[in-house]
Structure formats: structure tokens, C-alpha cells
Amino acid sequence: MTGSTADLRPANLGRGHAAVVDGWIMTRRNMAHVVRAPEEIGIYFSLPIIFVLVFGYVFGSGMGVPGGGNYREFLLPGVFAMAMVYGVAATATSVATDVSRGVVDRFRSMAVARSALLTGRSAADLLRAVLEMATMVAVGLLVGWRWRHSLADALLAVGLILLLRFALTWFGIYLGLLVRNPDSVGLIVFPAAFPLTAVSNVFVAPELMPPWLGTVAEWNPLSSTVAAARDLFGNPGVGGDSWPASHPLLLAVAWPLLLVAIFAPLAIRRYRRLDR
Amino acid sequence: MTTHAIVAVGLVKRFGGTTALDGLDLTVPEGTVYGLLGPNGSGKTTAVRTLATLQRFDRGRAQVAGYDVVRAPEQVRRRISVTGQYAAVDEILSGRQNLVMFGRLLHLCPRTARARADELLAQFGLSGAAGRSAAQYSGGMRRRLDLAASLILRPQVLFLDEPTTGLDPRSRNQVWHAVRQLVADGTTVLLTTQYLEEADQLANRNAVIDAGRVVADGSPDELKSKIGGDRIEVVVRAPDQLDVAVGVVTRASAGEPDRVPDTRTVSAPVTDPVVALTQVVRELHAAGVVVDDIGVRRPTLDEAFLQLTGHGAGAGVAS
């Protein structure tokens, strides 16, 4: 269009570079959404805070741990990880909202990297999870939870929990693209997340469950992350002789990577197929 | 490279049991405005979405801006913009944030993207609302923002899917003005519309589509000619003089007169408009018939449309 005073020459970026730049622009878009809708911040952070307070106080007061130790200290690493699982609902809802609106048509009609909308969502939700973790750790300290090893170990534990969250964003993105109805997709997550978090080592030791259920609980990716985090925080754990119970750190890295390897390609393929 | 901005050959698109495109052929020369006219559900929007790489077609082939839509969609996307029936902007972000974001996604540097956003906001009368979120915009403002987003870089081909549906006259004129300016700069526009006036105003050529295929094409004048030539039309003052007027018009005309008592109007096709008009005026005067209006006119595009598709444009209901 004539009359433009600006020099309208776009930068010529390589494919990989463009994917990173476009992904970052989408990340900033998602963060701008949060800033422009501050009431959502309250909703985002209420669940993790309530989790820590309710589980920390109600359950943490009068229960024992198999190997001896403080149940509150046993419970909180599990609660941190559990909040990450419920975060899938927010991710899936955001993606379903996006693809049900016209703006995605504009993105798709532009030469924007096909991965950008999804990587932008994943990155923005990971940043949000960092804030959620910081909040939960702070509230945890208030209710008497402590880490017993070095700060470096504690940060590594937080890193593992965030790694799980990152892997789950890709599951959430895939789910959002699959269901595409922003009103119902969040409601699907809760009934699925509840058994996933209960059949794990978050609340009770898998040894105390019926054997088959205990095996499922031990192989639950959430259990590996929680067990590794407990080790690193120096909080009491559930122990156990099974292979997953004796290799928590390995599995806490391997499980999330596997989830990303499965769900990131599925999500991108699904996004490309919006043209069908 | 061709001199055609859009070439579509035999496009077929089915959704389940319904056939949206049934062998659509289109050839749009560079630098023109091409109107795609058709009733609701005739396949206009599907045509735009397939050509703009938003939707796959099942059969046929299509080239936009010299590139194959299926084999080189990235190249096509670099050269097109789409403004659809529903504004494709981010509702939560402000108008300015939207334009800056799209500018950045076009890989303008941040400073240029901001400068261009402010320029476009001013051009479309949105400077005052630049900081408000798009959700708070009126329908017209949102459509203008949407069009502005399509014009951050001048596209080679611009798809406009019913760009002025639901707009007030002022917004509509702004859109038309922007389109004319773009075309003057060399952009090709594919315009779908239910408003025949819009096609008459903007389009160099039109295709009338119905049930997913082109049933007629040509310039607005050619389309009008396809359904017959000039007509003489007389509106009398007193209803009881209509019969006299019908007699006069019938003698001067080349075909059956059309008599509408409600509007005291009679019209009929004529071969030589000047001779017919002179004769009718003279005879009506001699017979003492008082006339409110008299003239020779070509059929409207509405009439052409009705004739070609067998049903009306059906404006108002979204397709």
C-alpha cells in the first residue's frame, strides 16, 4: 500500500530460525493474554495454593509414613507434581479456544512456522508453571515443609517437576486439538487426572495397594518424578525394591522425554490437518 | 510466472455428503478485482479457503501468485492475505498489539512493525481505539482491524470473503477505498459478496457461482447483457392511467410489457432506446398521461443474478 513511510522489508530468516522467532512471538502473545486478563491469574494460582494448604494441613497433620517421617514433608513433593498434572486442563482449554477462533485462520494463511502456535503455547505454559512452582514452594515453606539437602538438589527437584509439566503441555496441546471444544475439554481432564494422581505414590505407598494396582502406581510417570523429587529434597519417600522404585531419577527424565516424543509430533500433525 | 494471479481448474471439495465445490474453474488476471457472486451455500467461502491454503480440495488444481497451492503452500502464503467473513484477529489483544504481532510474524523488525501498526491504525480510523482489546470493538471496527492486518505488507493477492457484510456505510466506504488503492498499486483481489452493488462498484469481472460451479462470468455489463438488453420504464401519477401507459409502452417495445400496479409502473424491453423513449414521451403527452418518472435502464446485477441462478442473492443470512 502506498503512503507507508516505513521500510517494509521483512527479514529473510532460515527455516529453523523462523520457527524459533515465530514460536517466541506466540509465547509473548500468550503471556500478553495473561497480562490483559488479570482475573485469570487468580484462577491459575488458586488451585496450586489450595492444594498445598489443604493437603499440607488436613492430611499432613495426623498420618504416618511407611518408613517413618513427617507425612507433610512426604506429601508436598507429590502435591507439587500433582498440580502440574491438573495444569493440562488449562493448556488444552487454551489450545481449543485458539483453534475455535478466527485468529488461527490468519496464522495459517501466513507463512508462519507451523510449529509456532504450539511451541508458543508450550513455552508460555511452562513459564506459568515456573511461577506456580515458586508460589507452591513459598506456601509449602509457610506450612512447615522444608528441603533437607542442598539448594542445588532442591532446584534440580523443581526442574524435574517442571520437566514433567513441559511433557504434559504437549499432551494438553494434542488433547485441545483433538477435542477442539473449549467448554468441554477442561472437563475431560479432571476425571482423567484424578485416578492418575491417586494411583501413584503421591498419597500412599504403592506397596499398600493391591499388587496389580501397586505395579501400575509404580510405573506411573508421576510416581517417578515424585520419588526423584523426594530424594533430592531429602523428604521421606516410599522406598520399594521394584525396578521403577529403584531408578526414579532415570525414569523422571526418561518418561517426560518419551511423552514429548509421542505427543509433540502428534500435536503438530493434528494442527497441520486443520485443513481437512 | 503467469499473468494470471489465480488459476483454478476443476476444483472439487466435499464435506461428508455435501459437495461444496463441484468442478470450479476460475481465471483471475493480475491487477484486477474479481467478484465471486453467489447465494448462500454456493461455495464462495470454500473457494476462498481452498485457494488461500486453509482447506484442501479433493480434486483439481490451483495456482495462486504463480505457485501451486498444494505443492508450494508456503510460497503462496508469502504472497497472499485473507480477510474472512469473521474477523481473524486476537480478541484479547489490543488493536495495536494485534497489528504489531502480525507484523512481527511477517518478520518485520520490532520498530518497523510498531511504525506500520500506527500507520494502519490511523488509516483505518482506529488510532483512538488502538489500546482497547479487540473484543471491545464494534463489528465494523473489528473488520477494519482485520483488513488492516491483511495489508501490513502489500499482498500480491488479497482474498476478501464478504468484507462488508454487516458494515455501516462509512466503514463500507473505507473498505472500498482501501481496496481501490491496493488495486491501483497492483494487488489482485478476489472478492466474494452477496451485495451486487459491491461487485458493481469494485469488480472488473465477476463469476456467478451456484452449487459449487461457475454458471456465468464476465464484466458486470456483460452479465447484465446476458439476460437481455435495455428496458424502458414508466411510472404514472394516477393509478387509473396505468392501462393507457401500458398500451403506449407496448407499441414502442420489442417484447411483453411488465405491469406492476402497486408502484404504478410499466416496463418493457426495447431495441433502440432513444427512438422508443422519444415515441413513448410523445404519445403519453398526447394522451394526457401525467408521468412521475420515465427512463431507459439496463437490468441490475440483482436481476442478472436471479435469472442466472434461479434464486435470489439471499442477503442477510450467513452461509
Summarize the structure in short.
The complex is a heterodimer of chains A (276) and B (319). Chain A is an all-alpha fold and 276 residues long.
Order of helices and strands of chain A: HHHHHHHHHHH
How many domains of chain B, as an integer? 2
- Helices of chain A, by number, come to 11
DSSP strand content of chain B: 25-35%
Strand ordering within the main sheet of chain B: 6-7-8-3-9-10
Count of separate structural domains of chain A: 1
What is the name of the CATH class of the largest domain in chain B?
Answer: Alpha Beta
- Using only C-alpha atoms, the radius of gyration of chain B works out to 24 Å
Q: CATH homologous superfamily of the largest domain in chain B? A: P-loop containing nucleotide triphosphate hydrolases
Radius of gyration of chain A: 21 Å
Major sheet details of chain B: 6 strands, mixed
Please provide the count of β strands of chain A. 0
Q: What structural category characterises the helix and strand content of chain B? A: alpha/beta
Could you list the spans of chain B in which at least 5 consecutive residues all have pLDDT below 50? 313-319
Helix share, percent of chain B: 25-40%
Number of helices of chain B: 11
Walk me through this protein's architecture.
The complex is a heterodimer of chains A (276) and B (319). Chain A is mainly alpha-helical. Chain A has one domain. Chain A contains eleven helices and no strands. In chain A, α2 runs antiparallel to α3 and α3 runs antiparallel to α5. The radius of gyration of chain A is 21 Å and the shape is elongated. Chain A starts with 14 loop residues before the first helix and ends with a helix. The model of chain A has no long low-confidence stretch (mean pLDDT 89). With 319 residues, chain B is α/β, with parallel strands linked by helices. Chain B has two domains: 222 residues, 3-Layer(aba) Sandwich (Rossmann fold), CATH 3.40.50.300; 68 residues, Alpha-Beta Plaits. In chain B, β12 and β13 form a beta hairpin. Chain B is 36% helix and 27% strand. The chains are: A mainly alpha (276), B alpha/beta (319).
